[in-house]
Amino acid sequence: MQLKSINTFVITLMLGFALIIFFFTTSFLEFPSANSSVSSTLEYSIFETLSNSSKPEPFIDLHKAFNKWDSQVGCAQFREKHKELLGNRSKISSLQDAEGQIQCGELQMNHVSVLVKGWTWVPDNMNNLYSCRCGLSCLWTKSSVLADRPDALLFETTTPPFQRLSGDPLRVYMDLEAGRKKSGYEDMFISYHAKDDVQSTYAGALFHNNRNYQLSSIKNNDTLVYWSSSRCLPQRNQLAKKLLSLLPHHSFGKCMNNVGGLDQALSFYPECVKDSNEAPKWWDHLHCAMSHYKFVLAIENTITESYVTEKLFYALDSGAVPIYFGAPNVWDFVPPHSIIDGTQFSSMAQLASYIKSLANDPVAYAEYHAWRRCGVLGNYRKTRGASLDTLPCRLCEAVSRKNGRNAKAL
After folding, report:
1. pLDDT by 10s per residue, the chain, length 410
2. Backbone angles phi, psi at 9, to 5 degrees
3. Is the CB of residue 404 less than 8 Å from the CB of residue 169?
4. Of 366, 376, 364, 321, which Cα lies nearest the Cα of 46?
5. Other C-beta atoms within 10 Å of 253: how many?
6. Residue 108: how many CB atoms within 10 A of its CB?
7. Which residues form the Fucosyltransferase C-terminal domain (predicted)?
């Protein structure tokens, strides 16, 4: 009798373990994959946006998608969802508060002139006389005739003078590249990072000079993704190849070109010709060509904190949805629910599947454009406020605080 009881106990115990193992190996319990990535700033959970769709609904007319979103969701609901961002009340360390109040009493000069001495890309149309806060006027120029006694010299590609004597202009050095480095001879340093003296983001209009801004309301439904890159970096190419091999796309640059050569965008979209009297340049038709696609792939040259470049902002401005790979804190710089952060997907296959589903759901796709239609900018307000557009006044304010030429030489 005792042996029988022991056998019964052992059998019962074994059956219990078997049931437990069965329970954990079936689909009743699912644990997050070790490869899954979850972000508190993520504006969507994978496929959640598309969960209400009963069947795919391919579309090409963006206005019809907007109308459908308006009737099913609307700005009121979108504002409620993102109400904590309204009024730009969010506090983040990635952006300087360029629009914040300043103490006018801190300014020691009522006029500042900045002479740009060395540059590669600083656009000529920044040359201007600006009316800034606290009655400060700011002359930004590349002309030594107009700024014959400048208060500050700006160097973007060349090293400032090794020494500054009393009465000399302040030396300003700017480096907006990923591995930003001080020259070691500047009095003030400008970069894309909030920790430096003056921040300049890649957002704003001055990075988009001389573009054809004509945008298409008709989106390609057969070819989903626009990509253009002519600097074929191995890591970036490898990433792009993995994703684009899973999606119908057009690649217009030198890297992985599949449209028959460079500058083919104008043969695809002749309405994007800016001036028929001049030889076309790739930047002339950039925004117009992008606007024909539902998605634009944007991959930074270098992945580092706060390095969010024109690659992303061009796509946003063109009315496409960016698929972004870059700065880990990108959500500090963009509007809510405006981009697809590729790093938040566990695989390229999952990302490609999401993009294909989104392309066939007009309401879910229109949600990615709601921020601009409903005026929910979030941190993007600060991003634009700290852009190249406002740099002249912000630099002049900083120079005025130091008292320009009258600042003590170190």
Report:
1. 443 444 444 444 444 444 443 333 333 222 223 233 334 334 455 445 554 556 899 999 999 999 999 999 999 999 999 988 776 555 679 999 998 889 999 999 999 999 999 898 898 989 999 999 999 999 999 999 999 999 999 999 899 999 999 999 999 999 999 989 999 999 999 999 999 999 999 998 887 777 788 999 999 999 999 999 999 999 999 999 999 999 999 999 999 999 998 878 989 999 998 876 777 777 788 999 999 999 999 999 999 999 999 999 999 999 999 999 999 999 999 999 999 999 999 999 999 999 999 999 999 999 999 999 999 999 999 999 999 999 999 999 999 999 999 998 87
2. -65, -45
3. yes
4. 364
5. 16
6. 14
7. 220-404
Tokens 């950039």 appear where? 286
* Phi/psi of residue 400, nearest 5 degrees: -65, -40
Which is it for the CA torsion 357, 248, 229, 234, positive or negative?
positive
Sheet holding 295-299, edge to edge: 249-251, 225-227, 295-299, 321-325, 340-341
- Let me know: does 135 contact 396? Beta carbons within 8 Å: no
- Altogether, the residues listed in the chain come to a count of 410
Record the tokens describing residue 207, joined without a space: 């990075």
For CATH 3.40.50.2000, the residue range(s) in the chain are 57-86+208-381
With vertex at residue 306, the alpha carbon angle to CA 300 and CA 380, rounded to the nearest 5 degrees, is: 100
155 with 174: CB under 8 angstroms?
A: yes
**Beta-carbon count within 10 A of 180 CB:** 18
Contact 236, 229 (CB under 8 A): yes
Quick check: helix, strand or coil at residue 278? Answer: coil
Looking up tokens 């109400």, which residue turns up?
83
Those residues whose C-beta lies under 8 Å from the C-beta of residue 393, and which sit 6 or more positions away, are 130, 132, 133, 136, 138
User: Rounded distance, CA 117 to CA 334, Å?
Assistant: 32
> 47-56 as b/e, with b when 16 or more CB fall inside 10 Å?
eebbeebeee
Read off the pTM. 0.86
Half-sphere exposure (Cβ direction) of 36: Cα atoms closer than 13 Å:
9
